């Protein structure tokens, strides 16, 4: 059971339209290393964790990833506010407009729709935690690349926050994996 707070985890208040950055940010919305993939991966894997400690961590982080999807959606929406069809066509998003108008749709920046194959779940909790650590590192790297593509402080602040959360998630997964290995949890 979740309780939804009607606010973003970190405020997003972007003032300048930037369609290129919006297109790039779609990587974290519906791409293979994005927030949707992470949320679904962790919320699925929690059922094969060996104890409540693991289930709780995966539930907590999976839930936070849902909050990150909301932040990314807010950023994309603000960056594209008022975009004309011609502007969308100029950044090769005419196909997106054709199918979705200005609506968000989980895909990567190339228009490849979100796929369930992005979600890793083996049933082996150590393998899954290792995969989760790698997922967090890939997401961190993607946020760093996105930060390199902008100088807008209104965009850099939430991107920096999201990057930092990936580092914290990595550390929490590593701590849990190490705990299981050290204590030979089965």
Describe what this molecule looks like in 3D.
The protein has 186 residues and is mainly alpha-helical. It contains seven helices and no strands. The protein is elongated, with a radius of gyration of 17 Å. The two termini are 27 Å apart. The chain has one domain (19-182): Up-down Bundle (Ferritin), CATH 1.20.1260.10. The mean pLDDT is 95. The chain has helices at residues 19-30, 35-45, 52-80, 85-90, 94-100, 125-148, 153-182.
Features:
single chain; 0% strand; 186 residues; 7 helices; elongated; mainly alpha; Ferritin
Task: Give the topology.
Blueprint: H1 19-30, H2 35-45, H3 52-80, H4 85-90, H5 94-100, H6 125-148, H7 153-182
Describe this structure in a few short sentences:
With 186 residues, the chain is mainly alpha-helical. It has helices at 19-30, 35-45, 52-80, 85-90, 94-100, 125-148, 153-182. It has a single domain (19-182), classed as Ferritin.
What is the total domain count?
1
Mean pLDDT: 95
Described by strand count, sense and barrel closure, the largest sheet is: none
The dominant shape is: elongated
- The tally of helices reads 7
Distance between the terminal alpha carbons, to the nearest Å?
Answer: 27 Å
What is the CATH class designation?
Mainly Alpha
| Cα Rg | 17 Å
Q: CATH fold name, please?
A: Ferritin
Pairing-aware structural class of the strands and helices? mainly alpha
Number of strands: 0
Low-confidence segments, given as residue ranges, are: none
Under CATH, the homologous superfamily reads Ferritin, core subunit, four-helix bundle
In CATH terms, what is the architecture? Up-down Bundle
